[in-house]
């Protein structure tokens, strides 16, 4: 038997676990207790194995049978995955993991046998022989039966050990030899051992039927010190528990079922916690009775007992089944917390450490530097992992795509004042500097849609009033840097506490839609550059012009009818191909001469192929195909493989699709200007003061864009160990704003989508997981090197033009669409939008819908949709100059929702603002208990899976 629970939540308060799994929206729920606060030591993992005696009355031998697959014994406030694997004897393999089911009589008989049998707690035996001798001596048996029973118990069991085969890495069961009392060589080679963490312990359950026994023999032993019991277990690790269940032949394999019952009991976290601390038989039976109280009985006529229940998506809370000792400790802890709340009830809301005001000028910045400085060496050492290599490739291609796309858009918006070269250079300089000095180096700086909109508006204003654009832009950048430094000095970053999920989802949805819109818009532009030729279209026109006497040109047309004549073999000079026309001294003229009608459709094919292939590979991680290592590699390199596939298709067909344009010369796009922008140019002097107005609006936009992204990246469910740096990040952005303005480079701020993709590519997952168990989310690999290498490669991309020029642009647009869709589909807002289109009976069983009326959920979603639509309309109109104010207005809209929705509804629909959080303990506001019975069914309760994607949603 082997059952397992992920190590991801070790020493993590329950409030953090629950918020990351989406089980409860409460800020300070009743289960917010740290195991260290309760004084509970972490129990080691327990590997449980059931050996059954087979062969009576012929040759007797112990064999492994049903194996409920791995159990972990960790503090009680962790979640447990209890799956069973049954050995398929005919097929020679283990079955798919499934939930173990027991018969009620087997539990009752087991209790009766343990009550009358032998119970040894803290047995001092140091070997299997000593253990068997102590058990046999305590039983009231004749000397002859004792000898037979001892010889039988010392007989080597027949294990089905899974070892790696030579051919194709297959697994083959191997049988053990018979005459040794030490662990077998095959036991050490068992692949299952790699999944057990150091310090794991074993429990052996022996069950069977013997004809020479007149009465049952039952024993339960807890060893004082774990000891390796020879080859008794499949994996040679120290054993802590030993359970013996023997008796005369019984109908329906009664002892086999009792052995399964004992194994499943030991795999139960509450029973195991109690039996490890039991002092006598009464405590053992009390733990078994507690297990029986939680058993659910299925009627035999309504359920097939041979059916295998697949593992659930999420497990019910163990809170109700806590042992009485644990409930007493929890009560004391809750009382202490209540006294603390009473003492602090008149104090203001206490934010996290990064968002606490110091009351000193630049105090927050100083605290960020002090907090991040000790982690600086590890920020580079932690990057020495193969996963970082895949992250570099993924984010490099995403950054290059973003730089090229936004560089092209910026070149169109500024009429060549800035272009792709400035985009490459600015991305490299600003991004590398930010990764070296920022408080959160996982953030990726890039051009963003809102900033691009502001650049377009600023250029239009300069052109309409005959102003010199780059000097005017320089003064705007100087004032923005000044305003941002003032915000850093006054610790304005603490205001991000008012950015709830309502604001974050609206902003993230807008950015994702900009990504999707730009990707689709670029594809439409390709169809205009390479039009689809239809019969009768003017694009079919192609003329071969020949010189005639007198210096003129004689035109011979080529139309659809002549092409049909050409197919009949009637060829004349007017139907020559453009190359042939040139060879005969003519000149091809017309839009159809150099147009390949297949490029538009093939570009669309490349676009959809890269997008769909990247999406498919991203979901391979949770599929059933391939080993886990292969699935992880395919998922991590999804975008890289999609780009390689698109390039391969393009190279195979050889069509002249538009390729990636990388500048080959290092000089500004705008002819005649240097790398340093003159502060005045031809503009009047008073423009330096007038620039404060657009600079104020841009400062609001930069602050909102930067800090919302920072809040999203530093959420608790991502389990970042090294902390955030809100003040330090804004300081770095301000300095870089000044530098890029002086050099005439684009302005850069944190890119939400690419930063989330960066974190997603660096997430850590548990490796010692049982079959059928999804890897548990351990956190993010926090370091600075991946971002630094990405931006260095971006700067060197100018010199990689011979390689990058083969990448088709439609493939990059497909990756652009992939990034926008994945970010948009991950937020809870989109799931509530889907509820608008679902009949009530087909809606998923979301925990949100159990506490908030459906009409109120739809009203909240409609308000978010209206705000998003208003933001998009303003962004797309000449009034886009007030776009930053509208982003700030989302906070005001969220504050106004307190007049429309009750605090209880906002608690489930969104998050509470600091003033509201102070009132959470008030009666009627906090849910009764986040893990009530109605909330623990195996249903789609959570917005996030067990191994969460890097997404925006909190619950």
Describe this protein's structure.
This protein is an alpha+beta fold and 955 residues long. It folds into 3 domains: 46-326, 3-Layer(aba) Sandwich (Mannitol-specific EII, Chain A); 363-525 and 627-766 and 773-935, no CATH class; 541-589, no CATH class. Helix content is 45%, strand content 9%. The strands form 6 sheets. It has a 6-stranded mixed beta sheet with strand order 2-1-8-10-9-5, with helices on both faces. A 3-stranded antiparallel beta sheet has the order 13-12-14. Helix 30 (828-836) packs across helix 31. The two termini are 34 Å apart. Residues 1-41, 66-81, 162-181, 335-350, 551-574 and 917-955 have low confidence and may be disordered.
| N-to-C CA distance | 34 Å
- The percent range for strand residues is 5-15%
Mean pLDDT: 73
Provide the number of structural domains. 3
Query: How many helical stretches?
Result: 34
> What's the arrangement of strands in the largest beta sheet?
2-1-8-10-9-5
Q: What share of residues is helical?
A: 40-55%
Radius of gyration: 35 Å
Shape descriptor reads elongated
Subcellular location: Basolateral cell membrane; Membrane
Domain Bicarbonate transporter-like transmembrane: 360-914
Transmembrane segments: 391-411, 423-454, 474-499, 506-524, 599-617, 637-656, 685-704, 725-749, 785-804, 811-830
Region (Disordered): 1-28, 308-353, 919-955
Brief overview:
The chain has 955 residues and is an alpha+beta fold. Helix content is 45%, strand content 9%. Residues 1-12, 338-352, 919-929 have a biased composition (Basic and acidic residues).
